[in-house]
Design a protein that fits this description.
signal; 32 strands; RNA-binding; elongated; RRM domain-containing protein; cell membrane; 4-stranded parallel β-sheet; mainly beta; 17-stranded mixed β-sheet; transmembrane
Length: about 425
Amino acid sequence: MSTIRFTHYCWDEVLFWLVVALKNRGKHTLDCLSGIISLLVVLELEFVMIYALVNLLHSCQGLLLSSIFDLPNLSVLYLDNNQLVGPLPNPVSGLNLLIDLSLRSNFLNGTLPSWLFSLTSLVTLDLDHNQFIGEIGEFKYNNSLDYLDLSYNMLQGSIPSSISGLVSLTYLSLSSNNLQGSVPSSISRLVNLTTLYLSSNNLSIMLDLEFLSNLNNLNALNFAYNNLLVSINNNLTFTLPNLKELNLSSCNIIEFPIFLKVATNLRYLDLSNNKIHGQTPEWLGAVGRNSLTFLDLSHNFLTSIDMVPWTNLVFIDLRNNMLQGPFPTLNALNLSYLFASNNNLFGGIPSLICNAKKDLELSCGSVGEVTEVRIMKGKDSGENKGFAFVTFRSAELASQAIEELNNTEFKLR
């Protein structure tokens, strides 16, 4: 098998190889590339700034892609993280055997060509972080596609129903586009799906999460920042036992999804900017007890959270709720970010901040006699390089606090 792999570590080698090839062919453009490496099966050119080759050799923009796309035996093509610009060319005879196509993190634009959705042997299609516009085409019959990432483009229109026919799909990301309409319930047929990212679009209409009940392999789900009205029927008993990441921020939900109850390995939970009322359910503390590192419940209407039992928590945001009573008990020694301002908490700041192993950013608003606390605390070989801003109700309290803080591992400045 013919294979060429170049990375940013061997830029000179890429340049030398191509220039020599061009001189030997007696041409000054890259259209001879297909004749030189017509037997090429794998081509990886990542971080090599291909656009510079085009400029250096005075070639027409896009000619390199046209040449590569006509390689008849090519099965793997990686051109990630270059500065390729322009639309995708239409191959004359190449790419019929293509299995993996990755053009992520370039400046490619225009609409997605129809031939892209007709590659029946394709396993990986990654075009994220480009500037593609227009609609996503209808996928032809494909039993092979495993990985589909079209995120961070400017795609419009609806999610095509033909996606539900990609029965081998495990990874689907359409986030950060301008997609409209509803989320097709037929996605529930993708029983092998492990990752589903649809965040930051203009998707609307009511979405009943019951359609997820068949996706037992799902470990990452993100519907955040759409115009969705997500309906959660907690009378249903379906579960997502393998879930590790859930982001339903800004989804208009009114209660904690009960399918989280068995998500014992959850690592990331964002339910911020919703309409969840009342106290947190008792079972929430068992969700990801030893695995959860990120928790965002801010901008809801929560009234009570007695304790924060997650031992590996790094980030917690409880801001802009209606929390009352003493500050929740914390057990996370790895905590780096704690936000709880704009609540009605009282009592002392958790002593945990004096024992934190890493830098800690704390914003707690009004807590007891302290009206505002913002602390950055760091440890570096025993030397404190942190700082703190604290506002007290009286000078006497401030003096007492300074004395206490000077006896800890950080000082007021």
